[in-house]
Amino acid sequence: MANGALLYDVRDHIAWVTINRPERRNAMSWDIITGLRKAAADAKADDDVRVLVLTGAGEQAFCAGADLTGMRGDAGFVETHDARGELARLFNDFWSLGKPTIARVRGYALAGGFGLALSCDLVVAADDAQFGTPEINVGLWPYMITVPLVRSMPPKKALELMLTGRRVNAEEADRIGFVTKVVPVGELDAATEQLASDLASKSPAIMKLGRDSFYAVWDSSAGDALKYLHTMLTLNTMTEDAAEGIAAFAEKRQPQWKGR
């Protein structure tokens, strides 16, 4: 973004996307959400990008939710209603990205910021991370983030958090299971980069086929899912990277992925 509120940088096949509003605890305005959608589109279109890492600048917050002061006050009802759906469209952008996504979380991940973190495939959290849905305390409900929450933890646990608005620290988040790894603050960058590098070292073609399949069958019946996955297994075996991976295993060498 022109004002530097959102940063995008690609290094070693990893797109690093940073909400750069530490003075606002990286709260999301509509412009930020739209900018995140563009970042996702750019990462999806760039063959050099194999992993996307999402984070917030500074030491206080990953993202503290919506910036109510940053929402336009002159928009009409229909325009405002449509804009509120931009976060849902961002979640779908991440799920259909075709490449792994990681949330690097330090400090607060609250309300929409909590949902934003859990819309990523994996979450690496510092031990000072705090998660929560405080909307109920101000007469609102976390409608839009319900889907990423119930996809990331037992539904009744998600409901409890939404009903009470209480905060969850990193230790409890790890116990509930919606974070992938908890590390000391000083190790957050190294742990995130290590995980991202590990994912980037895999075949991008198989990563896309497999990850897309995971999301495609999420809400399917077992029978429908197995039919779809049966077909995907055959398609997977027909790729050049599958042949290369099997040959490399037999020859006891590292595979050279071609991404096709």
Polypeptide structure, described:
With 260 residues, this protein is α/β, with parallel strands linked by helices. The protein folds into two domains: 6-200, 2-enoyl-CoA Hydratase, Chain A, domain 1 (Alpha-Beta Complex), CATH 3.90.226; 204-250, Lyase 2-enoyl-coa Hydratase, Chain  A, domain 2 (Orthogonal Bundle). Helix content is 45%, strand content 17%. It is built from eleven helices and ten strands. The strands form two sheets. It has a six-stranded mixed sheet, with helices on both faces. A four-stranded mixed sheet has the order 4-6-8-9. A hairpin with a 2-residue loop joins strand 1 (6-11) and strand 2 (14-19). Helix 1 (30-45) packs parallel to helix 3 (86-95) and helix 9 packs antiparallel against helix 10 (222-237). The relative contact order is 0.11.
